[in-house]
Amino acid sequence: MSRIFDAVDDVIIVAANATIDNLTTQSWCFWMYVIGAGENNFGYVMSKAAGVAGPRLFTNDSGGSNGLGFGFHSSTANRPSRTTDFAMYNLNQWTFVCGTHDGSVTGANIHIYRSLNGTGAMTEVTYSETNNGTVALADNSGSNLFIGDRGDSIRSFNGKLAHYQIFNRVISIKEMEQVRRFPGALTNGLVGFLPFRGQSPEADLSGNNNDGVVTGALVDVDPPGVYPPLAFNNRERAGFPSRTGRYPVHHSSLMADSFALGKAPAAGGVTVPIMDHHYRQMRYR
User: Fold this and answer.
1) Alpha-carbon distance 7 to 54, whole Å?
2) Residue 156 has what DSSP assignment?
3) Any idea of the CA torsion for 27, 176, 30, 134, to the nearest 10 degrees?
4) Residue 71, Cβ neighbours under 10 Å: how many?
5) Which run of H or of E encompasses 213?
6) Cβ-proximal residues to 64 (8 Å cutoff; 6+ apart), any chain
7) Residue 133 · residue 79 · CB < 8 Å
8) Taking the CB of residue 207, how many other CB atoms lie within 10 A of it?
């Protein structure tokens, strides 16, 4: 599933939590399907804080540019920021995006990667503007995380978002490929994982209780093409949903809500992690 944002007032709010406050090193990964220009030409995928304190990652649709921005202050250059060149994504098409930052005030240490249509390799975008910071990053503890808008409600995203993942470290391109294909599989540094399953609040499957309270943002049944997180049923059998049914895995100690990229599975199977660190093959039925 995914959530669709209306470029007016839809938002998902994650309450302040020490696990996502004042991240020094960080990575943000998500799927997006942009329908059109965001509110006031800037559609915010996320913003940590209502003001200028925390990170923000947004689409820049001014003049139909289809660009992306990642920074820590949107109006001046006193904190690091970076803006991409035009045409970094296509409208009405799923794109997987990851943004990383090492905690420094050097703008060039902000990196944005994407996979157009979610099928090509992760590649770093090109940039039209890079601003270094002149002051240290501000304290954003106590500030909420806004998904699909920013705190003053004037930058609502226009389109769909899915499989939102937050890490407290800079992940590698190889790891980005892993979380693109298998959301929730990478647990090292994972501090937030909202796959957007249709509840409110949307559950954080990282185990850090960073659940998101939904305002608007209707459920959409057109998800990106990924291996969905595992789901347990009440008979302690695990499986994952699909458009043609549930594929069962007959093992009650599977690690919930995650896949491992691991070694290439045999034909017809997907390698999944087991709590005791042994691996099993999951056969399609």
Assistant:
1) 22
2) -
3) 30
4) 25
5) strand 212-215
6) 37
7) yes
8) 14
DSSP 8-class letter at 284: P
Task: Please tell me whether the peptide bond between 201 and the residue prior to it is cis, using omega within 30 degrees of 0.
Answer: yes
Question: Given the structure tokens 């996320």, which residue do they identify?
Answer: 46
Gap between the Cα atoms of 97 and 165, Å rounded:
11
Radius of gyration of the chain (CA): 18
User: What domains are defined for the chain?
Assistant: 2-220 (2.60.120.200), 230-285 (no CATH)
**Residues 6 or more apart in contact with residue 168 via CB below 8 angstroms:** 19, 20, 23, 25, 26, 189, 191
DSSP code, position 274: B
Cβ burial, residue 262 (10 Å; 0-12/13-18/19+): middle
Kindly give the confidence (pLDDT) of every residue in the chain, 285 residues in length, as a single tens digit, with 9 standing for 90 and above: 899 998 889 999 999 999 999 888 999 999 999 988 887 777 888 888 655 557 878 887 765 688 888 887 655 557 888 889 888 888 899 999 999 999 888 999 999 999 988 788 999 999 998 988 887 677 888 889 999 988 888 788 999 999 999 999 999 999 999 999 999 999 999 999 999 999 889 999 999 999 999 999 999 988 887 766 654 444 333 344 444 443 333 333 333 333 333 333 333 434 344 333 333 334 333
* Cα angle, residue 29 at apex, residues 6 and 213 outer, rounded to 5°: 50
Do 190 and 180 form a contact (C-beta atoms < 8 A)?
A: no
Pairing of strands 42-48, 56-60: antiparallel
- Residue 57's identity, in one-letter code, is L
Local structure of residue 258 (DSSP, 8 states): -
Query: Any idea which residue has 């240290």 for tokens?
Result: 136
